[in-house]
Amino acid sequence: MKSGLSRRSFLKVMGSSAAVGGFTLSGLSGISRAFAAHRFQGVPTLSYIFPGAPQPDVARVVEALNAYMAERIGATIDLRAIEWGTFDTQISLINASAEPYDLVFTAPWINNYYNNISQEYLAPLEGLLPELAPGYWASLTPATWEAARVAGHIYGAPNQQIFVKPFGPNIRTDLLEAIGLSDEFQALTSWDQLDPIMAAINEYVQTDDILTHVTYNLAQVVTPEAWNYDPQDFGLAVKGSDASAQVVIFSETDEYRQAAELIRQWYVAGYSPSDQTLLAEMDQAWTAGLYGLRMADIVKPGGEAETAARWGHAVTAKAISQPMLTTGGVTATMYGLSSISPNPELSVKFLELVNTDPVFYNTLCKGIEGVHWEWADEERLLIKPAGDAASFADTGYSPNTDWMFGNVFNSYYTDESQVGAWPLTAELNRTAMPSPVLGFTFDRSAVETEISSISAAMGEFSAPVNQGFIDPAEGITLLNQALRDAGIEAVRDEMQSQIDAWKAANA
Amino acid sequence: MATYTVKLRQQRQLDRDRLLSILGRFSVHLALMFFGLSCLVPLLLILSASFTDEVALTRNGYSLIPSEFSTEAYQAIFRNPTVILRAYGVTLFTTIVGTLTSLTLMSLLAYVLSRPEFVLRKPLSFFVFFTMLFSGGLVPFYILMTQYLRVQDTFFALLLPNLVSAFYVLILRTYFVALPSELLDAARVDGASELRIFISIAVPLARPALATVGLFVALNYWNDWSTSLYFIRDPDLYPLQYLLYIIRSNAEAMQLQSAVGTISTGQMPTQTARMAMAVLATGPGAVFFLFFQRYLIRGVTLGAFK
User: Fold this and answer.
1) Angstroms from B58 CA to nearest CA on chain A
2) Do B246 and A52 touch (CB under 8 A)?
3) What is the DSSP string of B92-152?
4) Among A98, A189, B170, B175, which residue's CB has the most CB atoms within a 10 Å radius?
5) pLDDT of residue A22
6) pTM (2 d.p.)
């Protein structure tokens, strides 16, 4: 009896102290949130989830966005940036626990679009978009919308950016000048013409103290897009110029053999490091100035400035492959509407606003005028960091991911060399040759077992060829034998029959 | 002559035994030394890399002695130390508060479970034991934390998940059971309440067990990053290990991004800076461990003698 009482009183003490602790701990963040929400009472808030580093000044930007939005579409926004590295984990928890949100960034490479569709996490948009987002709906070509369509429905709203992927080498400008082959570089039209330039760099490397190799990661050259193929998954591809859309095993094509032979030739000549460390470490070595060029990146208007900002070297780029509009290019950056979104109509209106209103969009991308950025030249839409901040990163709000939020062709230029790049890129998107299978999406359910054996065979046999470690004649035979043993022909035939059915349905 | 031969034989036998025992000990020591080195060398590599010049590191790779000594990585971190200091603060706070609260709760529970006269002992023991065999899984856990308790983005999210561990409760219970019941009875005869008995008799006697469990709990809190991965989005609440995890996994995610041809969100920290962060994050933990080591050894061997 006595002991029961004291036990109870002890619990009481524990309980009340925990409650006090809880109040002070959770109270601090709660109060600031309550203040922020107060101004727009009764207005629904859209929950907008995307990957990105948290920005120190995000509260001010959200307030500016809210004032603008509340007036136009009658909603406010909650910007939920989730760190890059944890995005997939957190979004799958949010989805699995049926936590309500409105819009989420989705693509085949992060927060997997097709997985989201099969799990029914996303709502179809084609019914809402033409009516509630007419400007945005019209701003993308029908072919582009087709690319996002899966099983008859559009589940993703693409952010307009560079959809096409012309691949080509990026060479350090200082080196290009030192070897004096600028004209030859600009005249490149095929990968084998790169050989004399690489030989010249190699001679220069021998005399230089810092440079160790001509290049690194030779495997970039076997990217199917670099040879005008539209890559499908699992080592399959469709040639861009092939209107009949025949699926081929990419490692059995002439182009693959050519690429492998070039890679082997360059590897044997010592143009690339023979000790293969992690790609991330080689990227750092490239930043540190140990290599002269990157083999194959997407070459786009204004891209040289972006590359320079990323790696710290001024580079010159030249596209070798033709621009081609592929499903993968369009679906690379999209927003999906949650199937349990509390505000589907408002969310689609938000998509209209962010994709068509440059003022709103640029506030989301770059922050507030006068606080985070100011005009350097308003006529040419060129901006610079506000006040005496040395760079945009120092202003307190600089997500630096315009392509993440909406139509990048509405974004203000941040660098002199970028000015004028958007109309050129838009032109490239519009005029690019559409892939013969643009809009087609493969349903892999019938060939699940083959697919896992194929990726195992790829992992084992493709890297030695792609990096030039073994003689291509031998390596390609081994690779193709392994792929055939893994059942790649069954996957190819399945994909071909799906493509034929898809073509018949869309004819 | 005969005795001499016997002695000689005995002597030989002795020599052989000694040789065998020396050889045996030598091989055991060699194996242990090898094991010790395999634990130490990676740590030393990180330490050395954090003091190496960035370019030298990419050129020459890792070595046990810095090829070109430089403190640039540490200077870079401490030029803007707010992030790491705040993370330290969060980790220290959760570790200290969490360990103390956890020990209080677990010892209360374990003590009650150890008393034969407690009516609910059996069902409650089963209840504790049951959670060791079956767990709800990640998603129900996430739903409980975010939709019922609503503790996401608060210190509670960091504290609650590690607060009571069934396994440690059972360890503590075993220790409490072993306390001589005469002692407790004597206290009761002297008029002490149950709470008094617990605080003045049982807890002081269980100090080695508490210290051991406390060390484990503290290490759990110190090393925990998965809780933050699920429940923390506010950068002001990032604990140290999670900050390291984020830096590493962001670097990997940026790699993915570059594969689709988009541009990175910011400068990736240099290799040496990442190593320096790792040193700063593990260093205090190691010191903490040395400090508590004597309790640990005593505590771990507890079970062996019973």
Assistant:
1) 6
2) no
3) HHHHHHHHHHHHHHHHHHHHHHH-TT-TTHHHHHHHHHHHHH----HHHHHHIIIIIS--T
4) B175
5) 39
6) 0.78
